[in-house]
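Reopening: structure tokens for the NAP complex, inputs below.
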Amino acid sequence: MEGDKAAVRRVDGPGESLDVVIVGAGFAGLYMLHRVRALGLSVRVYEAGSDVGGTWYWNRYPGARCDVESMQYSYSFDEALQQDWRWSERFAGQPEILAYANHVADRFDLRRDIAFDTRIEAAHWDEAASSWRLSLPAGRRAAARFLVLATGCLSAAKMPEIPGLGSFAGPVYHTGTWPRDPVDFAGKRVAVIGTGSSGIQAIPVLAEEASHLTVYQRTPNYSLPAGNGPMTAEYEAGWKRDYVERRRLARTTKSGTIYEFGTRSALAVDAEERSREYAARWAKGGANFMHAFNDLALSQEANDTAAEFVRERIAGLVEDPRKAAILSPRDYPIGTKRICLDTRYFETFNRDDVDLVDLRADPIEAITPRGVRTRSGERAFDALVLATGFDAMTGALLAIDLTGRDGERLADKWAAGPRNHLGLMPAGFPNLFTITGPGSPSVLSNVIVSIEQHVEWIAGCLGYLKDHGYAVIASERDAEDAWVAHVNEVAHRTLYPRAASWYMGANVPGKPRVFMPYIGGVGAYREHCATVAAKGYEGFTLEHGIGRYGNPTP
Ligand code: NAP
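Re-run output (same inputs, fresh job):
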């Protein structure tokens, strides 16, 4: 079981047999590989894309940018890395984040253990061998004692169910599977369907490039100015001076990100003071606005004050009152659909060459060979951009035909919503770990902070099993039931379940409406996971399994 690749055994016909297989070479898969190697285990990463980067590899749409500040949206596990790397902007754009992922892959010599262009089609638990049997493309196979799914929460692009989509004569692009070669929209009439984070970022840039842009909006979104700009030497130095301490602090917060956390209720101050607070945060930019008061996610009345402030700003930014009204969200609390950050999004609708279609009043009937037909008529386009989001959190996991003990299919187990002990391991699926899986803080957090915590917990677990002579770990059903109930209970203490969001699976017809991420907070979750490990993996059974794993002490 040496890390040396020469030690990789070939068993059971064609295909390699490894201690650990990791699926996905985004930020989760890259760091997991680094940590597994350090344990001296044989490991392979299988990645569907042709290079590293995960979400930042696929989401190359114009304007793609992170909405967590660069100084915080980066790995913290290596002090030299975080000191050396230099971000050029407050919020890094996709090309720079992808360059960072490539830098990390090279710096830690990760590529030699990654097989690209390799999508895992199926994974079946083999009880007799205490390992996973994997089906790869072209009939190839592999076996792994442990399977770590680092497949991302927002990686299964969601095509809209619109009749005639395949009939459009021009090119159709989805923001989540954007081509690697640049797309030229100059002189083109372009339609964008979807106004979530991706659409809101792409629309201002597409408006600059295209000869005419039409935006099809179903649900208006709350969006805040990002306030992006060049990184200043002073700001960078401030972070780097005490990076270790700031990262430690971030890990204890609710979202894994350091903001200026308001400690008062929005209702504890008068309207004037509230407005001053919101205005100051709006001017600084970023999601810090959402932390102005401590009850915006909990109290409808408090939330209404922030929502109203944003609607007033939209009315001020958009010259045409009809468009401003269409762009103003009214029927769900602010923040309960993922808050968006933008750069001149609302102002874009003041351009003569940008139209807005309100699909609530004028729904799409079909995509035609020429363009888009709504109830009021057809518009012709040269290109379509679908910013229609993802089958979030479970989509990429269920895209793999996964069967666990006794042939149980993950798709059946999750038919009424995901059940995943600690967001880390579904009961009935031994030795299978999900990084930032449903039931963990994942999408409600600075995901790199959550990734690091999961990777380190999983690596600690693999090391523990190895040192203690166990080959199999499995979640207990009772423990999973208790965790799922807890995830549900804390979600329903907040306003989040009031929105028809992708957090709830509401954007995918037929998907169960369950609040999927854990909203209890990154800090509390980290502590809980650490306690579970310290108690010898309470809520999990440890088994000796078949075949040796690691070097048990006598
Ligand atoms: P999204 O938030 O799910 O937005 C999809 C949009 O498409 C929504 O406006 C949706 O309308 C619309 N839509 C879907 N199906 C439609 C249909 N059949 N007809 C008309 N409209 C349709 O997806 P996203 O914008 O790709 O963002 C997903 C998540 O990825 C974000 O919430 C965020 O977590 C992450 N992300 C982050 C960044 C960043 O860091 N800045 C950037 C992009 C994405 P409804 O709301 O009515 O369903």
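The mean pLDDT is 95. The CA atoms of residues 442 and 548 lie 33 Å apart. Marking as resolved unless the reporter disagrees.
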